[in-house]
Amino acid sequence: MPRAAARLPVTRAEGAQAIYLPACLTRMLGSLPGEPKGPSLPEVFLALAQRAGVGLHIPPDLVGTCCGVPFSSKGFDQAHHFAVNRTIERCWTWSREGRLPIVLDTSPCAYGLRSARPYLTDENQLRFDRMRILDAVAFVHDTLLPRLKVQRRAASVVLHPVCSITKMGLTAQLEAIARAGAERVVIPPSAGCCGFAGDRGFLLPELTASATRQEALEVRAEAGSGHFSSSRTCEVGLTRATGRVYRSFLYLLEEATR
């Protein structure tokens, strides 16, 4: 189990070029056993953005905001509708009525919010259409990476593109970010759904053990110096399956450009 997450950093709204919405998972789940000590994921993301000259703002009134996926995946339609409508309303305010993009650091949450339009009220659908909701992979690839200078590169890293990255068509962007920070990037041939499925991996560990069996064999055959993905729960599942600690891809790029 991950340790509890650290408090979110305090940021300034003035001069922000994007709104950073740390997902519930980021706000709850911190480092894994065996993970190197260091800054939290939000601290790493903010450091990268500052290094690139891009201001990010974390709204102070995040409590209660959720992409709604934990409810929709279990068929709790009313809770899902309530959650996504409340979050879109706040995103509308935070983004200054669509002038700033909203960036999420966890791919399943980004995908869930980006797919929420059919469940919104008429008013929130109009707001949704005027907002840009981005996964961190897309934001980092398009906005931060061109402004960053790589100082050092890892020898070899292993990637796990989560299901939502595949659905959003961002696997190539994730790989490009990794190639900026490593000489060799490996995506195991059997990489696919890790089976964690929100909380299923916590409650039914045999599910993730089955889903990751072949990928785990391929990962253990690689001498990767780092293992990276874009969702904390998927990282928990892959860490458990492979015995290698998986972290957000943001850590790889932060170390490469430090």
Short description:
This protein has 258 residues and is α/β, with parallel strands linked by helices. Helices cover 46% and strands 12% of the residues. It contains 14 helices and 8 strands.
Essential attributes:
258 residues, Rossmann fold, 46% helix, 12% strand, globular
Task: Describe it.
This protein is 46% helix and 12% strand. The chain has 258 residues and is of the alpha/beta class. It folds into two domains: 18-139, Rossmann fold (3-Layer(aba) Sandwich); 150-257, Rossmann fold, CATH 3.40.50. The chain has a four-stranded parallel β-sheet. The protein has a four-stranded parallel β-sheet with strand order 6-5-7-8. Helix 2 (41-51) packs across helix 14 (249-257), helix 7 (136-144) packs across helix 9 (171-181) and helix 9 (171-181) packs parallel to helix 14 (249-257).
Topology, element by element:
Elements: E1 18-21, H1 24-28, H2 41-51, E2 56-57, H3 69-72, H4 77-94, E3 102-104, H5 107-114, H6 122-129, E4 133-135, H7 136-144, E5 154-159, H8 163-167, H9 171-181, E6 182-186, H10 200-203, H11 205-211, H12 213-220, E7 226-229, H13 232-242, E8 246-248, H14 249-257
Parallel strand pairs: 1-2, 1-3, 3-4, 5-6, 5-7, 7-8
Helix pairs in contact: 2-14, 7-9, 9-14
